[in-house]
Task: inverse folding
């Protein structure tokens, strides 16, 4: 097998693909952390009563959750974060005041 030209070509292509993925990962890690830092600074600069506060807060927390994991943020974590920033409305009371 080692003398087979097709095998050699496949091995070279596989090694090149792996090298590209590793280079992209290094680049993306640096860009991600720098962008996360800028996002956190922008969030901190928002006025507390800004209408976009829940959106930026959720995004900031989701980005941080992604930074804390080596894989993907799991659905239950997304649900926790979104529920915290966008809680369900309180149910209307059937009672009348009076």
Result:
């Amino acid at each position: 097998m080692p003398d087979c030209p097709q095998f050699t070509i496949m091995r070279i292509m596989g090694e090149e693909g792996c090298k590209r993925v590793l280079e992209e990962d290094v680049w993306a890690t640096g860009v991600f952390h720098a962008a996360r830092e800028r996002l956190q600074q922008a969030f901190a600069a928002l006025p507390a009563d800004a209408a976009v506060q829940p959106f930026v807060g959720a995004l900031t927390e989701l980005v941080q959750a992604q930074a804390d994991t080596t894989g993907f943020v799991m659905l239950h974590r997304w649900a926790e974060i979104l529920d915290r920033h966008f809680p369900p409305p309180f149910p209307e009371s059937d009672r009348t005041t009076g």
Residues 64 and 74 are 13 Å apart (CA to CA). Helices lie at 5-45, 53-67, 75-85.
